[in-house]
Amino acid sequence: MNPQQLESVITIAGAVLATCGLGGVAWLVASELRLRALRRNRLATVGGGPAPAAAAAPKGVVGEQLMTAVRRLGQQSAVRDPAKLSVLRTQLMQAGYLNREAPVVFLGVKAAAMAAATALVVLVVMPLLLKGESGMGPVSMAAAFTLAALLGPEQVLKARRQTREREYTEGFPDLLDLLVASVEAGLSLDAAVSRVTEELDRRYPNLTIHLRILVLELRAGRSRKEAWASLADRLGIDDARSLATMLRQSEEMGTSLGETLSVFSQDMRAKRMLRAEEKALALSAKLTLPLILFIFPCLLGALMLPAAARLMQIFGNG
Known about the structure:
Blueprint: H1 3-47, H2 61-80, H3 83-94, H4 102-130, H5 137-184, H6 189-199, H7 205-219, H8 224-235, H9 238-253, H10 257-317
């Protein structure tokens, strides 16, 4: 098969794929509009009159249709592998995505990224191959697009989780100190959590979101043991799990809550000091590589260049 025939085959295949894609998008839009019309008719029938927004076109139709398509892709991925859905939901909660549809949307985004990477490979790499471009350039571009589609969403989620975990780890000793002060002042643990949430709102906003959820769960009647265990699962740090275990044991054994929190707070302060000392001691080892790569060559050049220039001058005159 000569290059012209290959180009014709690729063009026809691309046209067929583009037509199928447009047809699928049109079908999704039509089905969504049909469902919206059915919902409006049901609301009008139940309410005895037309829906308030029946005559007006919905705002952000394109964005809503795209989100609907992403959700459907995510639902298909979730059905194929339901075992990982609970693990993914926990990871998304630790990253700050608390919506129930977050796992489905994440899976849909991964599927859409793969489709976009495939389209980019076809549109960018194939013309280079048809023009006779050889070497590793087109292959490298295709590999880059594929890796970005495969690892991009996972890396973004991992980076967000690490950022949140650092904030939670830094704010947990302050949380314990304020809890100890509030409990020793005479407040109950639930009231102390509500008070501490207001105090930590500006300094640790992401941590206070989980504390507000904890307060709402306690007010809704959930047991203290389950509420604190759920908080530890949402935060995903060892300090929160230790605190939940300590509160459960204190409740079961009937020990003083103030003394237990005081001991745990002292332990948290000692751990924070140890982490700071560990970072300070590791600084010298981390500076070794920049010193060797950047400062040492400059120092060596500043010391050796005058001597080399002098030797060249002497031997040149000789």
